[in-house]
Amino acid sequence: MEARGMEARGYDAVLLLGFGGPEGQDDVIPFLRNVTRGRGVPESRLETVATHYRASGGVSPVNAQNRALRDALQAELAGRGTVVPVYWGNRNWAPYLGDVVAEAVAAGHSRLLALTTSAYSSYSSCRQYRDDLAEARGATLPGDAVCIDAVRPYFDHPGFVTPFVLGVRSALAEFERQGLAAAELHVLFTTHSIPQADAERSGPRERSFGAGGAYEAQHRAVAEVVMAAVAAAQARGSAAVVAEGGREGVAVTAGAAPAWSLVFQSRSGPPGMPWLKPDVNDAITVLAEAGTRAVVVVPIGFISDHMEVTWDLDTEAAATAAAHDMEFTRVSTPGLHPVFVAGLVDLLLERLTPAVPAERCALTALGPWPDACPAGCCEKGPARGAEHPAASVAGVTGG
């Protein structure tokens, strides 16, 4: 394939980097062993988490989603006049990252621009991916023969945020049609929990983000942007109704936006180790006891509907809500939404044409995030010990 459009910065291929997941019953335990290697996790614990996959035929949705995303990126790039191969590799299952980089190099591509399937900053969601890229580069050819750069964390890029705004608006409109008032609803923005120590070390050392580090601050900032956009849309809609109804003397007031919270899910690790909380199930229980009638769950930490979305939210969190006679709806992740795909290509193309940082798209005051991680950014916290293997399907890593 003739490559054109990336020569200005020397990139000759794109690499989509995912977490990986099993694609059949025989893959489940080997996959979980890959993820938990070196952590001393007993086979009995692996079997416990394996039931999540086995309930879906042993298949994680994530590989099919990444295949489709690879193809969508390829098409979007070509549509903008940039024709380059888009490779896809995983950290923990085939196609393995090292094999894919070797394949790209064998095909004559030595300068790759990588896009990871995680939008936020922490050791697991950013630093570890970049370390994997460096390892794959070093294992392929010695010295500087191969270059692999990565796009910046894109938590507050419009392409990532907009599908969540649309999803929340749609969910709230549906509950309104059912006769539920805003005061009876609650929006829960959820993401994968991580150890408190890892959260505190997330982001550059020279910036202060609070107890939850950059990881929690980024999620909270995005949730605020989503709810502000939803409230603005509701206000515009109410104003339009007022203007139209005013001719008939009808008074219409703008509806209030529901309350919202940031919660966490899929906690793993020793019981005594502090992790970010509250857990989504605990939050649902507390809301139900306070009289909330419905929850809108927004998986703001995830780019696609992989196992921890379909199991931990669609199965477990939904069951918790049902146990309290509470209405439950879950907003879709960006997935293959055209706005998301276009936004990812924007991120790739911004590395081809150097721009002043202020010109880069960012919807929060925290961004735009830098391309390269400074020294000490997103360091790993103290040793976690033998973690529960549920970390294998973490949305923070994309399983």
UniProtKB/TrEMBL annotation:
Compartment annotation: Cytoplasm
Which amino acids does the record list as binding Fe-coproporphyrin III? S60, Y129
Which Enzyme Commission numbers does its entry carry? 4.99.1.9
Residues involved in Fe(2+) binding: H192, E308
Keyword annotations for this protein, in alphabetical order, are: Cytoplasm, Heme biosynthesis, Iron, Lyase, Metal-binding, Porphyrin biosynthesis
Signal sequence span is none
* UniProt cross-references to InterPro entries, sorted A to Z: Ferrochelatase, Ferrochelatase_C, Ferrochelatase_N
**Does the keyword Ion transport belong to this entry?**
no
Q: Give the source's domain of life in one word.
A: Bacteria
Q: What is its main location?
A: cytoplasm
Recorded catalytic activity of this chain's protein: Fe-coproporphyrin III + 2 H(+) = coproporphyrin III + Fe(2+)
Q: In which pathway does it act?
A: Porphyrin-containing compound metabolism; protoheme biosynthesis
Pfam entry (one):
Ferrochelatase
One molecular function GO term is: lyase activity
UniProt function note? Involved in coproporphyrin-dependent heme b biosynthesis. Catalyzes the insertion of ferrous iron into coproporphyrin III to form Fe-coproporphyrin III.
Write down the NCBIfam families for this protein, in alphabetical order. Answer: PRK00035.2-1
Q: Which family does it belong to?
A: Belongs to the ferrochelatase family.
Q: Which HAMAP family match?
A: Ferrochelatase (MF_00323)
Report the PANTHER family cross-referenced here: FERROCHELATASE, FERROCHELATASE, MITOCHONDRIAL
Q: What is this protein called?
A: Coproporphyrin III ferrochelatase
- Please state the gene responsible for encoding this protein: cpfC
